[in-house]
Every structure is written in structure tokens, then in C-alpha cells.
Amino acid sequence: MATPRATHLWVFVHGLHGTPQDFAYMTETLKSQHAKQEAEERTNDATRLRHVYLLSKCNAHLTGTMDGVDRAGERLEAEILAEMEACRRQSSTRHDDESSEAADPTCTSSSAASASPAARPCGGGERAPQQAPHRVLLSLVGHSLGGLIARFAAGQLAARGVFDGGRCVPCNFVTIGTPHLGSRDWRVVPFAPTIVSRVLGRTGRQLMLCDGQASATLEERNSTEGGACTQSNKGTPLLARLANGTYREAWASFPRRLVVACPHDLKVGFLSARLSSCNPYSSGDVPEAVSASKPHVVCHDPTASVVGPSNQGPPSDPSLHALELGILDSLHGLTFERFDVELPWWSAHEDLVVRRAWWSTRGADVVQAMLERLVVS
């Protein structure tokens, strides 16, 4: 059996207070899709693409989900590096086994054979072909807070040079209901920043964009270890730093970027998830579905881009804070595929990934719409 030409590593990162099983429906659907594709193409082992699915545990449990996007991102980075190394080891082991099987079974170490100047080496006189570096395609899928954690990890991987040399190739990056601009829209609740910060710890402070001074220690440590952060950013909220420098470049290096948002998501603000300074549905009129087979998808824009409010963008929503507008300005020009979906308010956030498939598969068409747009190889 020949060694697969490459491995596609699919990494799924769940949201705040979620579990890795939040992606059970999506991963099973993706596996079925890949199996069907391989059967139709009838690829042999030498040319097929091996798929590996990693359900991250970087922000599992209460402490893991509340100690900050950055710390969870570092754990995700470690998980990805470990999985990539495991893929390469497995590829190397299979290659060694194939080389042994290819050797001439009649070859012996007899003195007569070794003494003869005309004796040919084992395997017909040719060396076993040297194994080419195993290539890993990387796709990141983050739901809610998981999208921010994935963005942080991608920046750290890029700072390490993991994407250099073609041995790890960025492929897909999907954020689903992710608060890219934070969760300051919860300020309609009195004392929301204080409440959220105390209840959700470092993660809460980062989501409320009031973590600038708290993250200085991490920045100093990363600046001395060659990480993506620098001391020049000291005092800047983490989400603002994710929109600049290495983090922005790392996100842009993924050729297929999907952003999924729902106007009625009660847990993550629509503008924050949509990466937009204005709500096209503010009047309450939501367009019809783009197709009968995708009843919950009301907008699919394959060439959407972030338009910073200070770059002649549309009038900004007056509820947006200067920090949120600054993030949009930093991401100005970043292109992606945008999906706006219409789901009932009471379960929209969970339905985006069909989190409770045992109860309802509402949102399955949204998952299918996303998977159809992903690059496989």
C-alpha cells in the first residue's frame, strides 16, 4: 500500500463553555463527503489525500474556556504541531515499510555474493527512493470563541515559520458566529463589562476589549521567544492585535476564508460575527433564501471584503465603539466568503453547527453550504 501524497488536517475549535462534540455533526458530514469523493474518483493509495480530523480540547472545561483566547490559542498551537508531527511519523513509517517490501527477497549477505565485484546491491542495484517531505494541508474551523482561538493559533504558527517551505499549506479558515469585534454589544446591560469580566475571567475581559494592560505579560514573553506579539502593542486589546501584523497576515494566507453570521444570534452580535460596520437588515427585512435546498441561507457573497469605516465605507452603525471600528479599519481589504443565515433566535448560535443533532438538525443546510465551499486538496 503506497504512502498517501499528503495529509489534510482538519481542526475544529468549539466555543465558550462548549465541548469538542459540538462539531460531531459537521465532522461526520465531512467524513461522509470525503469518503464519497474518494469512491467516485477511485483514487489509488499513491495519489489519495489522507484526511485527519482533530476536535480540539484547547478550551475544554471551565478553566480552559475562561483563561483567555491567547492561552487557549497556545494550547491549540501545541495540539496542531503534535498532530502534524504524528502525521509525518506515520508517513515515514509507512514509507520505510514499503522500502523493505520492495527489496529483493533473494538478496542475502553471503560472503560469496559480497566478494563478487559484479555483485549487485539488494533491490536490483538501485537505492530505495528517498521520501519526499510529507505535506500537510491545514484547515481551521472555529465556532464562536473558537474562531478567535484559531486566529491566534494561526498567527503563532506563522511566527514560528510553520507555513514556510510548503510543508504545511494553509487551506481553509472558517469562522462561525465568531465575535471578531468582541462582545461590547452586551453593554446595553448595565455594568456589562464589569459583570462579564468577573464571570468569564480573562476571556471576558478580552471579549469586552478591556484587557490591554492585562495582556502585557504575554506580549513581553512572546517578544523574547520569537512569537507574533511585540512590546510595541503593549496595552492594546488582544482582538485589536489579532487584526494586525502576523495575525492578520496568517489569516490572509488561507486561500479560502468563510465567515458565517446570523442576525438573530443572541450570543454574538451580528456585526461582530459578520465583520461589518453596518447591518443591511436593520429595517427588519431579511431576504428570502438563496435556494430551496438551503432555506436558512439568505445571503452568500463569495467576494465579500472588510471595508473600514475610515476608508470610504458605508455609514457605520452608531452603536459601534471606536475600538470596534478600529479593528475593522485594520482588517480593511481582507476578502472572504460571507454567509448570512436566518435561524430562530432561541437556538441560532447552536444551530449554526447543529450542536444538538440528537434533538434537531435545524441548520444542517447551513453546514452543507459551508462544506460545499471548502477546498479539499
By DSSP (H or I, 4+ residues per run), the number of helices equals 13
Q: Find the structural class using helix and strand composition.
A: alpha/beta
Uncertain stretches of 5 or more adjacent residues: 107-125, 214-232
- Cα(first) to Cα(last) distance is 21 Å
Q: Sketch the topology as an H/E string, one letter per element.
A: EHEHHHEHEHHHHEHEHEHH
Largest sheet: 7 strands, mixed
Mean pLDDT: 82
Report on the structure:
It is a single chain. By secondary structure, this protein is of the alpha/beta class. About 40% of the residues lie in helices and about 15% in strands. A 7-stranded mixed β-sheet has the order 2-1-3-4-5-7-6, sandwiched between helices. It is globular and about 60 Å long. The two termini are about 20 Å apart.
Give me a quick take on this structure:
The protein is of the alpha/beta class. The protein contains 13 helices and seven strands.
Keywords, please?
377 residues; alpha/beta; seven-stranded mixed sheet; 13 helices
Q: Which helices and strands appear, and what pairs or packs with what?
A:
Blueprint: E1 6-13, H1 24-41, E2 49-55, H2 61-66, H3 69-102, H4 111-115, E3 135-143, H5 145-159, E4 168-176, H6 192-207, H7 216-225, H8 238-241, H9 245-252, E5 256-261, H10 270-274, E6 297-305, H11 322-330, E7 335-341, H12 348-351, H13 364-372
Parallel strand pairs: 1-2, 1-3, 3-4, 4-5, 5-7
Antiparallel strand pairs: 6-7
